[in-house]
């Protein structure tokens, strides 16, 4: 059974929309809601129309570029013993936890847009 690209895009739209809604309780919710909502819109739009290749490349570059601000915190996280802490609550004494979550979220968002680029038929 092959899942259509349109179905995958609708699933991605729902997932990134949920990611956006979950961000509403964050102190910096406007930034993260906007990022995930933009990716959700890209996914749902791509289910019906083709976005310009350059636009998708620029969005991916922006997401990866922004993720670089959190890369050092992600490296800090990789060096701790208790990796499961990433699933806990925010601890202000451990900024690498939130930074790692944000780094990984940006990578997931970039992958969602990369899917749109890879499925193009040009």
UniProtKB/TrEMBL annotation:
<keyword id="KW-1133">Transmembrane helix</keyword>
<feature type="transmembrane region" description="Helical">
    <location>
        <begin position="7"/>
        <end position="24"/>
    </location>
</feature>
<protein>
    <recommendedName>
        <fullName>Transmembrane family 220, helix</fullName>
    </recommendedName>
</protein>
<feature type="transmembrane region" description="Helical">
    <location>
        <begin position="55"/>
        <end position="80"/>
    </location>
</feature>
<keyword id="KW-0472">Membrane</keyword>
<feature type="transmembrane region" description="Helical">
    <location>
        <begin position="100"/>
        <end position="117"/>
    </location>
</feature>
<keyword id="KW-0812">Transmembrane</keyword>
<dbReference type="InterPro" id="IPR029377">
    <property type="entry name" value="TMEM220"/>
</dbReference>
<dbReference type="Pfam" id="PF15071">
    <property type="entry name" value="TMEM220"/>
</dbReference>
<feature type="transmembrane region" description="Helical">
    <location>
        <begin position="30"/>
        <end position="48"/>
    </location>
</feature>
């Amino acid at each position: 059974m092959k899942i259509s690209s349109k179905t995958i895009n609708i699933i991605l739209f729902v997932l990134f929309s949920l990611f956006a809604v979950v961000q509403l309780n964050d102190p910096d919710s406007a930034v993260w809601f906007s990022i995930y909502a933009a990716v959700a819109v890209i996914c749902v739009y791509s289910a019906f129309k083709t976005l310009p290749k350059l636009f998708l490349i620029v969005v991916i570059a922006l997401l990866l570029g922004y993720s670089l601000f959190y890369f050092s915190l992600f490296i800090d996280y990789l060096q701790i013993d208790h990796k499961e802490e990433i699933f806990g609550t925010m601890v202000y004494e451990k900024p690498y936890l939130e930074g790692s979550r944000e780094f990984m979220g940006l990578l997931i968002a970039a992958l969602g847009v990369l899917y749109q680029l890879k499925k193009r038929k040009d």
